[in-house]
Structure formats: C-alpha cells, structure tokens
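ARCHIVE ENTRY
Sequence with per-residue tokens
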Amino acid sequence: MTLGVDLVDRQGMDVRVTSQARTLVDVLDRPEWSGGWEEVWRSLEELRLVDLGEVQEYLTRLNNATTAALVGFFLEQHREALHLGETELARLEPMRPKGRHYLSRTEGGRLAKRWNLIVPEPLWRRTWEEAR
C-alpha cells in the first residue's frame, strides 16, 4: 500500500483515504488543488497532532526541498498547537533547500531564514483575516 494511504470501509465500499501526515504534505505541495493558501492554512490549523516520522518519510519520498521547507515553516508557525519541540522541527532542516527558494516568484515575499524559503506576505500575515 502507498505510504499514508489506507483503505476504509464506507457503507460497504472500500475507500482510499490519506493520513493526516500525508494530507499535510500533499496540500502544502499543491495548494492549487486544495482550494488555495487560505483554505489550506485554515484547514491545517485544525490539526492537533501530526505523525512527524510519517511526514519526514513522505517528504523523503517526495524529494522536493521547497515543499519540505514549507512544511517546516508551517509546523514552526503552529508548533504550540501541534505540541512540537525544537528537536522535532530540527529533524526537517536537512531536507530544506541549500539556497534560497521562492514559494512564489511572482508574489515575492520575505525570507524564512531557518527554512531558506521566501514566503509571500499573505502567508506571514494571514491577510485573509484582515478582510473579515
């Protein structure tokens, strides 16, 4: 079976569902398939536990340094809610890009130094909350 994918019986039918760890990585890797940044951020903020070992294993298989950095950035921003310590976050650092990577070249942004990731301002400031 694929990492982070399980078969669940739903009213007599087998349905494939992804684990929280796999979903976390997938939606950060492809936010355009998940409703965009606001939807992704709001949905992931509902997580209270995440299997960091599974996240790390899936990121290794995905082999995308930018996605690994974004996952690290997200987890760092939400470390209290997810009960993550410095040791857990440090496990993801070797997976980050060696040099600076833009999350979006067209949007620019500012550097999340630890992750070598240039993050657009809307993600730093959660600008979607300002519109409410």
